[in-house]
Amino acid sequence: MAEKLNLGNLEYLILNYSVRDRSFWLKVFESLKPDYFDKKDDRAIFDFFKKYFGKYNAIPDYQVAVNELKEVDNEILSSVYAEPGANAKDFIYEKTLTFIKSNLMRGALEKSIDLLTSNKFEEIENEIKKAIRFNMDASLGVKLTDVDERYEKIKKLEVERIPTGMPQLDALLHGGWGRKELYACAAPPGIGKSIFLANWATASVKQNFNTIVYTLEISEERLSMRHDAILTKIPVEELSYDVDKIKEKYRMLAKTTKANMWIKEFPTKGASINNMKSHLEQMQLYEDFKPDIIFVDYAGLMRPSYRVGDNYEDLRAIFEDLRGWAVELDLPIVTAAQTNRKSLDEKGGTKEFITMAQVADSLGITQTLDCFMTITQSRQEKEQGLINLYIDKHRHGESSKSIKFSLDYRNFILEEITI
Known about the structure:
- This protein is of the alpha/beta class.
- The chain has 2 domains: 1-140, DNAb Helicase, Chain A, CATH 1.10.860; 153-417, P-loop containing nucleotide triphosphate hydrolases (Rossmann fold, 3-Layer(aba) Sandwich).
- Helix content is 46%, strand content 13%.
- The protein has helices at residues 10-20, 22-28, 40-56, 62-68, 74-80, 89-117, 121-133, 147-159, 167-172, 193-206, 220-232, 243-256, 273-286, 311-329, 365-368, 379-384, and strands at 182-187, 211-215, 261-265, 293-297, 333-338, 371-376, 386-394, 401-408, 413-417.
- A 9-stranded mixed sheet has the order 3-2-4-5-1-6-7-8-9.
- A hairpin with a 6-residue loop joins β7 (386-394) and β8 (401-408).
- The chain is elongated, with a radius of gyration of 27 Å.
- The N and C termini lie far apart (81 Å).
């Protein structure tokens, strides 16, 4: 066979390594397109490889390629099937990733010109981000017989949990919030969704976990006061008269934790997952802040990243977006959901138990969740300063469990009651 072409010819290298390394081909063939290749012969070879693979699940051998690609220069074809240079794999893999990203970006910019004429700015942003974030997943998954490796990962997932600050709840959650998981608590309006989220978020920071809270219902200033009240135990209406005590509490906190919390407000129904992703990128860029956990207050007030037009499907898309983001970031996301009128009783409180059947708009969202909790409170319990958290669904543990709390409405502090 003819001597190999220069290693600087990336398009040739991609074809050459596709012949030699099936795992490499499987990673790149769906992302590459024939028109990415500048040279006519390289384009023809790749196009043939792709069609042949689609039919036979294999790259054609040299003789088949020679018979079928009569218009391709034989020297080039021979070089494609030649042995690659030593230690070339990492180089080819890295350069191919850049090659694909470059072409994706070119395509995104071309699309953006058309979108710009229609002022579709969010779609432009999505196209650009899609190109920037492209990556070839190097992981093939887990092999069942690799027991030691699998259980090392499982152990890590179990150990690296973020405590909720509530011992009974932590016990049910195997230690707290788990990475790559989506949690939600649901209740009728005004029952306590935001209070539970605020207590959990404050507990995260106290235990040295960087926290971001996205609020779509309460202003960031008002919500920050709730966190101040929980942390200092000062009643909310007295906070503005005791600013020095608040500052001293945060100075003391800084001695035990380097973690911090950011609260970001978005307009109701005015933000999608893309807005939150953009904000997080800004936090990392300008503040060097990377969260360990994210709270969204609450998901039902978000806008779907793509509109289906049906409330059921729109809400389901929002929760699927959030769970996908939790997996992408390798951290827990905790949010809330609204229940419907069937969750209320005739006396002005909630039913004794609220289940998935009473979630407003979409039963389908609970299928996306790793853990679904509901908040219940009778009228009498509200007067007594009591409230309940019911574990209705837990993908990885016990469910149908209830925990009772005392609730001080002056400072929004929740405390478990041991029965």
